Amino acid sequence: MKSRQYITTTLPYVNAQPHVGFAMEIIRADALARYYRSQNYDVFFNTGTDEHGIKVLQKAEEADLEPQKYVDPFAESFKGLIQLLHISEDIHFVRTTDVRHVAAAQEFWKRCDENGFIYKKNYQSKYCVGCELEKTDSELTDGRCDIHTNQDIELIDEENYFFKFSACEDFLKKFYTENPTFVIPDFRFNEIKNFVEGGLQDFSISRLKSKMSWGIPVPGDNDHVMYVWFDALINYISTLGWPTDLNTFEEFWSEGLPIQYAGKDNLRQQSAMWQAMLYAAGLPNTKQVVINGFINSGGVKMSKSLGNVISPYDVVEKYGAEALRYYLLRHMNSFEDSDMTMEKFHEAYNANLANGIGNLVQRLMKMIVSYEVDISDINFDHAPVSSYHSDHFEKDRDLNKVMDEIWRLVGDMDQFIAEHEPFKKIKIDKKGAHIDLHYLAGELSRLAISLYPMMPVTAAKIQECLTEVKTPEQPLFARKD
Questions:
Q1: Strand locations in 319-441 (E)
Q2: 307 in a structural domain
Q3: pLDDT at residue 343 is higher than 80
Q4: Would the pTM of this model clear 0.85, i.e. be above it?
Q5: Which of 30, 97, 308, 450 shows a CA-CA span of 20 to 30 A to 326?
């Protein structure tokens, strides 16, 4: 029986168009999903959109639209990333407004309530609309959130339902100890362990419908809707059919290896809140959470709320999806914050794609075709080549290192051509030139297979050139002025 791997992104908020921060997350998750498929795993790959909450309601009111009509086109823009970015076509796309998700969220609430983890009380708090999280004074600078510096903190004073987060403290400590690779990278794991060690406070999981109407109704209380984070996190299992389709849920969640990709601003929600919620509902926990850094632009965090975003649609229109996949996988640090500008992108494109791998494939295939080199025995088996990168895919999840190894191979092939000069050797030692070019064809096949999870269309084009023994009909990456 095949092993089963479940991989999910977070669900981006639909209060604005997609930017490259989420493109990076879904591309990384897709690379991991493609790798596991190449290793003969059954893979369930999930993404979608988070559509409830006060941010969406406020934006809908500003646009003078009903919330559902406001979110629908944004959901389509995020769904459009699947085709735009060459994401695996069999990916599942869940919306938190889906009827099945709504029913799952309400059932999840009921189970937590039945198990004694939900209660109601009056409370006051400081609330960041941008994060959709309560904030303590220690988490604010000059009265504002460190992440959403352009938004005022809201003061909440009302009766809400609460989740007994504090009752999960011992469970989380034990869970973290028993699962030493639960959060990657280690320094993020240390952050969340320190957060839990500091003591957990129960958090609000509802809003008064009279003040915030856009949400899933609380079961048995029509005066309240669910807090957006409580609702949204449940997508990870509602997309698997829970609680009605338990076969898929058991195969991929209970018995599989569920991995969640998220940004660093999601660390608390993904690795503590959600794990406590699963515990409260009596369900198995996530196996691993991978935390990405932010993409900055000119030294400032790229953010929809700050308005300094780079659109993946704009980048792809000029440079192509494979170029964006390359840049986000290789030049954005796997775990730390990174800076991206279009000037840096343009430079990397010409140096490493147009003049790099593109030029290598063009001139190598031209020699193979012109000199009639027999490459009919070249092997295209993914397994042994993909296993070469297994430590980075399966252990440290460091996709930067995978890309560096791939480009090291590109450099080695360029160096081999420069040292052996088959284009000169063919005139005096045809057999030797053929041996050299046959070796390079094998290395090019290895390059294509290694590229498959990262840049699938480029990999397919290279493999097509080798199997049909032809030069690319067009440059893989045309130089840009």
A1: 338-339
A2: no
A3: yes
A4: yes
A5: 308
